[in-house]
Specification:
Dna Topoisomerase Vi A Subunit, Chain: A, domain 2; DNA primase DNAg catalytic core, N-terminal domain; alpha/beta; about 20% strand; 32 strands; globular; 5-stranded antiparallel β-sheet; 30 helices; single chain; 5-stranded mixed β-sheet; DNA Primase, Chain A
Amino acid sequence: MKEAIHADEVKRSVNLVELIKSKGVSLKKVGKTYVGLCPFHKEKKPSFTVDPTKSLWHCFGCDKGGDAFTFLSELEGLTFRQALGELSGGTNALIPSPLPPAPLQVLAAGAQAILNRVTDFYHQTFFEDTRGLEYLCDRRNLHDREIYESFRVGFANGSLLATLPKSGEIIETLKELGILTSSGREFFYHRITFPIFNEDGQVAGIYGRSIEDDSPVPHLYLPGPHKGVFNWQAAKRSAELLLTEGIIDALSLYQAGYRDVVPLYGVKGLTPDHISLFRKYHVKKLFFALDNDAAGEEACRPLAEALSKDPGSIECFRVAFPVKDANDFFRDHTPDAFTALCAQALPVIVEHEETHAGHMTKEPFDDGFSLIFQDISYRVKLIPTFDERLKATLKALYGGCDKNFLDTLDLNSHRSRQAAINQIAKRGGLSKERVEAHFLVILEEAEHFVEESRRTEQATPPASEMSDADREEALGFLASPTLVKDILCDMELRGYVGEDSNKLLAYLIGISRKLDRPLSGIISSSSGAGKSHLAELVESLTPPEDVILFSRLSPQALGYMEKDFLKCKLLIIEERKGSESADYSIRTLQSRQKLTQGVVIKDPATGRMYTKTNTVEGPIAYLETTTDGMVNPENSTRCFELSLDESKDQTRKVHARQKSDRTIDGLSRHDRSHRIVKKHQNAQRLLAGLKVVIPYAPLIEFPSEWLRTRRDNERFLCLIEAICFLHQHQREVRQVGGSGEPVPYIEATVEDYRLAYELAKDVLAHTLHDLSKHSRELLDEIIPMVEEKAEKARCERHEVIFSRREVREYTCWSDWKVRECLSQLVDLEYLKTLGGSQGKTCVYQVSDCAAGPDLSAQGFTSPEELERKLRCSSRK
């Protein structure tokens, strides 16, 4: 140990550049490093580098490198002690002037950040000081670089102290963590370090293995209870794991190709974190690959008992090594030989004491259940979580008294369960084994409850029964010659005033779910303009069994749903921000009308990996809301953009309605509102899945100047189909078919076209315009302001200059909205800027403002033109 300390001091004191020069190697300074021709192989261009700040050398040609000791060892064949003797007796020319220590770059980032940084420092040192690397390669046969890097293997050679301040908060934190001893020395000095990470990627613990054979303490862990599980990802990958006695044994198996391996912290080192991990990822089998000695043999049964006591017990098997341990085994055996050992593994038999839970009665309630045993009852209320953990509020009642035990616990956590079991048993005078049996039942019932709840959530709610009177009312509603007007009136009675075109288009998007090619829409407005209200209104008028609403979607959420869960449904996303990561899945459903996903899984019987295909069927109608004025073109070409009216006039209408709702008339409307919802839901249930034919479709001309109109044209035709579909009870049902079964259909009328044209022309014109809706509206406000100023100043419009403040005061718009729209108007050259640099106020001028696209001028057939074409074709 003293020799090692002396070696570190010598290495830090030696000027490596001077040492190498003294051996005949010519070095030239380049930046902070020195370069020269490598003395270990022939080369014409220098690839040999020396870093004096780190006291390390490396050749990029032959890949040799190291410190002063390794240089002398490679050049002159000296042993470590011979090299140490030569360097210790060297001249003063080899002793450099003192260099300031490089600071540990953690500052005041907290104890966790410091611990993470220390493991990174040790990992870097592992490759710089090769003693730890040599130990693993030569003595433990671990030579796979992937292992070193994947598990951040490190080496503590004492150089950490040189990077630290003499005192201060970092030193105290390192002492509290256990990295430094109370006297300020490195706790893991001369040890290879193996950091143990938790599932958040943070260092939870460190294992240190001495490289000295005669070390009195070869194994060290950070002080305190063991935390985290080394290679915890194995439990996430597989339901069958190998369990070794220590980390180096686990890495021996890992190097041999057995990646699903988890180490203990010694034969008695099974921790609550192990059990919690196995429980969380539903581990079913464990193969004990412990040392072939008395301690390893004796540990098998206690381990199996601890694992089988835990609810959801694990099958345990003993792998019998013919040598001491896994590390020794792979020196002389192949991986196939180990596979054969596992196939011969014998089960570990555990004899349990009789711990029957006894007779039990179950009483479910809305968010949990009660379990009543002979001498105790439990009331379990499940708490919803975003992960897969089972959290619950548990109340234990003794003899009808409800004040004995109450706590919130994690049923997946062994520690949490054991604490509750101990308390319940102690307070009620029950045996611990009996309460553990009760908890086994509680856990099974909780898992069953959560699974049933999940199935219920994804199950389509049953349609409510429709009485004869309700059916007659719904049919009368669908047959009304003023159906469209009635829909708008009902939507207004439900509280949404104005916005007739947007309301009707959103309603048609909802009913289009029953068509082969449903519609999609994006409701866009500023916050508070009513976009969520419109989405909620459409949702309320749609039968509950046909609508699915999400506040948020994860990237793969849609791909794992039941096959027909989305089929012919209206999918509503409350706010676009919550579904951006699922954009690709949504667009695929819109375009292909199904979502197919390949997932790699492991066959539990054979252990082989294979790809399972999961298909979710469409089609879907889709509606989302957003405050983003600029919609992604990938989405806008698939959706109608419903831009809400943010004018003062619309605001006055909303205010008037809000006041009216507080009157007697408002109370009366509220009573009628429930009846309206029921009528619309029943009416939509009575819409049969008929095909729609548009007989005049070949006569429709649609703009073709823009590439995106290939999709816009299709959406416009689908809109005509949706309008016709809504009026199916006012149309003659015809049939078409040859030798097969006849297909019923209805035909779209010119009136259907007229309504589709009126709904779509403004929406399509907006989407084809290069400006966003808000920017167009601001431009429409700026033009009259500029004309007023031009008239007063008796000048041309393009000569008028104005500021952002004038625009804000004239329009009464918010500053952020004015800024955003002015920026786009300038970028697209609708406005010109003057000034704005070196602290001057930015002012604007109006340029030649291009009008928005005129669809009729681009060849979009008007209803009148369509009627004329139909008259002409009928004469022929």
